[in-house]
């Protein structure tokens, strides 16, 4: 179905989005491209056949080599015992401009229009599904604009379904107080118990009203603790999942899951494998660690989930640009590490990671695997041309502006071209 969007409307939408600091958190029906917008590139060029990035700067060569070694270990680990057979996994990306961390911008007409354009571009790549982050407390009845947020999320999920896309929704605390969201929440007005209860109420609303295909009840518990300041034990998280399962409306056929980041303590996932009523185990995969230790964990967890009769999903993944000794136990909130993702010299490693993740999904029979930094499929920053020492806000603003321009004109980055080639090789579209 032709999307009715004029260049003038797109230009107005772009002006609004350029004022937004960052719309992304730390989360197939055929159609026609609108005649009023430039068509995206028709034929992808594989990464291996084109020079896509500048030389690695001297100060980053050691980390680049470390990550390349971790990726090699990742490849070897996945290929061991795998016959190379492809699965029917849904390959997805974050629907970045529908992320709840964007706050009130989501309530504007421009947000809707830009999401339609982004969906067009993603489908032209061959993307089969999207992840949408609906953050607490946006849907709480006493939160400003909650009715508008609920309408937006209901409408965007319905639009994705109309296009034949699979939708996974993630809950969790909004990134208040960070450079990744303008929304401000006073967590001192909550306790650990009232936060858990409010989060459960919001998830029940999502299942009943928004009706995604998959709904994550929780992931990255340590990140939730970091954002809110609450100490929530593994037992409390497990009880929260079990109690929510007993109350949730499944009449739409929604699949319900929960999980952890692979870097987090195993205590947070142990109670999920045998939990009655939990349909799938979900992972977030970012750091690999020395010799791809965290991929080894993912493989072990996937095997346990399958043995327990549960499905497996990866709702977030990207290559974390950190040495093993930079990895901490408190979650992944380090801005200086996340800022590294912006630069184009990492592009070959990003594509290698994506291909490895798809292999991991095939080898373990996953249902769904999604990649987080959607903007990098459209743009990166040139390291040498970017001033040193600029803030996280400035880095995100520069990168988001570049990605926006390219989404509107139908251009993709070399990473985006290779991603499209990968999907075409698998027979998508």
General description of the model:
- The structure is a single chain.
- With 429 residues, the protein is an alpha/beta fold.
- 40% of the residues lie in helices and 10% in strands.
- The protein has twelve helices and eight strands.
- It has helices at 7-18, 61-79, 109-125, 146-162, 192-210, 221-228, 234-247, 293-307, 335-338, 347-364, 392-409, 414-425, and strands spanning 90-94, 129-133, 166-170, 214-216, 255-261, 280-285, 311-317, 368-371.
- An eight-stranded parallel beta barrel has the order 1-2-3-4-5-6-7-8, surrounded by four helices.
- Strand 2 (129-133), helix 4 (146-162) and strand 3 form a beta-alpha-beta unit.
- The longest helix is centred in the N-terminal third of the chain and has 19 residues, at 61-79.
- The radius of gyration is 20 Å and the shape is globular.
Give a brief description:
The chain is an alpha/beta fold. The protein has helices at 7-18, 61-79, 109-125, 146-162, 192-210, 221-228, 234-247, 293-307, 335-338, 347-364, 392-409, 414-425, and strands spanning 90-94, 129-133, 166-170, 214-216, 255-261, 280-285, 311-317, 368-371. An 8-stranded parallel beta barrel has the order 1-2-3-4-5-6-7-8, surrounded by 4 helices.
- Identify the overall geometry: globular
Largest sheet: 8 strands, parallel, barrel
Q: What percent strand?
A: 5-15%
What is the averaged pLDDT score? 88
Question: What is the SS-derived class?
Answer: alpha/beta
Q: Output the helix-strand order.
A: HHEHEHEHEHHEEHEHHEHH
For the largest sheet, list the strands in their spatial order.
1-2-3-4-5-6-7-8
Query: How far apart are the termini?
Result: 16 Å
Low-confidence stretches: 1-50
- Fraction of residues in helices? 40-55%
> Can you count the helices?
12
Number of strands: 8
Tell me the Rg in angstroms.
20 Å
